[in-house]
Write a structure and sequence with these properties.
The chain has helices at about 5, 15-20, 25-30, 45-60, 75-85, 90, 95-105, 115-120, 140-145, 150-155, 155-160, 170-175, 185-195. The chain is mainly alpha-helical. The chain has a domain at about 140-175. The longest helix is centred in the first third of the chain and has 17 residues, at about 45-60. It is globular, with a radius of gyration of 18 Å. Mean pLDDT is about 50; it is low at about 1-125 and about 180-195. It binds a DNA duplex through helix 8 and helix 11. It is found in: Cytoplasm.
Amino acid sequence: RNDSQRLGKAGCPPEPSLQMANTNFLSTLSPEHCRPLAGECMNKLKCGAAEAEIMNLPERVGTFSAIPALGGISLPPGVIVMTALHSPAAASAAVTDSAFQIANLADCPQNHSSSSSSSSGGAGGANPAKKKRKRCGVCVPCKRLINCGVCSSCRNRKTGHQICKFRKCEELKKKPGTSLERTPVPSAEAFRWFF
DNA sequence: AGCTACGTGCTT
DNA sequence: AAGCACGTAGCT
């Protein structure tokens, strides 16, 4: 059983434009895709909450007053986006897709991995150089939820053991040590996710 | 135990 | 340099 099967109708057509179209925002609206498709840490409760919030959006999209964290303050969408992206407080009460995923980062094992992995390692980091890096979770590829199903990584999943090329984290593409923690997402990209 | 996907060596 | 194949870390 390959991923495209597990993801249901996931295999998207080879057209780049269509692939961009399925760049995960809409899919996030579906509860089904709320599940950890990529084996990442998606807290089910949060999923449900965010899902409910997202469901609220369409009817209030004019003012975005549906965002509880902002106390019903009406602001232009752009302002909300930027706020959500850069304010941890806003992000923790995520409503938007991007903010939702940022919020989930807080729950990612990588953020408390210092305790869990080092202890579970038995040797407990006796071999830190061997440690696998983890996806940043904020870059565009990381935000993709669906395997394209047509790239070499998808096609060769059995032997290649690689994540879909369109989902390969930008940070992981670089050599270890060449990055400054997390690469901030360009604001233009943020808008793209939001709308 | 089984799965996903990172790291790395080999091949093209 | 890019792609492929494999080992295996990390997670469920």
